[in-house]
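Bumping my old thread because nobody answered last time. Still need a sequence for this structure:
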């Protein structure tokens, strides 16, 4: 299927949310593929990107957060700095690399200060969020280097989190929608935003992370808020499978799924995604397309709402017919 199979109008650019997970931003090759995908998308649609931390980085930050030994903390810090320095040197030109290093040192300074704070949830959230604070500026700069006008966006401005009566944090969907809409209205046409996944903020700006795998939830919330036509979930596996295809040869790929079913299965923890990942897109009837950056032309898995919006009906029918013909 073409990258624009669901793009049914030609007169007006459709809005799409493109989420890239850790492996899709974690190496120079992955970032090159990302640039190719976004450049192609940009011609026919208005993409908004949501990105995870570089692969493995959130795990490192979790280790750093629980580490009490100062020397070992320093070892983790060095690992973080080196990884981001090396990757940015590989993919950016001299001038942009300098700009990125300034951003990186701001993140590292904040991490150092935060590590000195007494343990507590606020300390933890700042540490965990740092991965996305380091990845989104890098992605925006590499896009810019390849001629795509881009800026990174701290999702603290967009996603509002409140403490529930039970002491856990939940996303305030109405506030999130209002904040995101008003930000989006002011975004210059032609600018591709690169939004940090995984995090939001309380009213006072204090960062709160959304739980592991939370970038899918972020992307889904943003897709709902801006009224996106589609949510492309780019990863390194070409769709959703009945079992982990890396471990089980018998695993079969779903060509298409009902969003209602995907939501139920995911809530029962059968799809391995963030528990709330599909809620906002289900509410807004937005199709989700799980795709691999390694095979951008592949079909992936298309997850369609039962109440299909008019604009995607024709393309969905074509895809289903094609699938039937193949069987
Ligand atoms: N970086 C976070 C994690 O690894 C969020 C995400 O990737 O969705 O859990
Ligand atoms: Mg991830």
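Sorry it took so long. Here it is:
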């Amino acid at each position: 299927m073409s990258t624009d199979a669901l793009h049914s109008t030609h007169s007006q650019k459709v809005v799409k949310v493109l989420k890239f997970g850790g492996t899709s931003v974690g190496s120079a090759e992955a970032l090159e593929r990302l640039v190719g995908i976004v450049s192609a998308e940009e011609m026919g649609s208005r993409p908004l990107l949501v990105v995870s931390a570089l692969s493995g980085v959130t795990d490192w930050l979790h280790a750093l957060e629980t580490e009490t030994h100062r020397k070992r903390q320093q070892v983790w810090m060095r690992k973080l700095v080196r990884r981001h320095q090396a990757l940015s040197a590989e993919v950016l030109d001299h001038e942009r690399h300098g700009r990125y290093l300034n951003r990186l040192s701001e993140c590292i300074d904040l991490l150092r200060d935060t590590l000195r704070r007494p343990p507590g949830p606020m300390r933890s959230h700042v540490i965990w969020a740092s991965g996305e604070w380091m990845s989104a500026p890098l992605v925006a700069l590499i896009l810019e280097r390849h001629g795509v006008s881009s800026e990174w966006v701290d999702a603290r401005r967009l996603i509002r989190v409140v403490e529930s009566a039970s002491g856990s944090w939940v996303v305030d969907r109405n506030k999130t929608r209002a904040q995101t809409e008003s930000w989006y209205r002011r975004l210059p046409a032609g600018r591709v935003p690169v939004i940090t996944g995984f995090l939001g903020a309380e009213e006072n700006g204090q960062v709160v992370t959304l739980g592991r795998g939370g970038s899918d939830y972020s992307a889904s919330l943003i897709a709902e808020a801006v009224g996106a036509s589609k949510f492309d979930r780019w990863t390194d596996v070409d769709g959703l499978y009945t079992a982990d295809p890396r471990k089980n040869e018998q695993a079969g790929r779903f060509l298409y799924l009902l969003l209602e079913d995907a939501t139920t299965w995911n809530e029962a923890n059968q799809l391995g995604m963030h528990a709330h990942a599909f809620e906002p897109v289900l509410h807004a009837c937005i199709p989700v397309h799980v795709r691999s950056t390694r095979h951008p032309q592949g079909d992936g898995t298309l997850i369609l709402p039962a109440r299909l919006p008019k604009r995607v009906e024709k393309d969905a029918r074509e895809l289903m017919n094609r699938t039937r013909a193949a069987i």
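Confidence is low (pLDDT under 50) at residues 1-11. Let me know if any region looks off to you.
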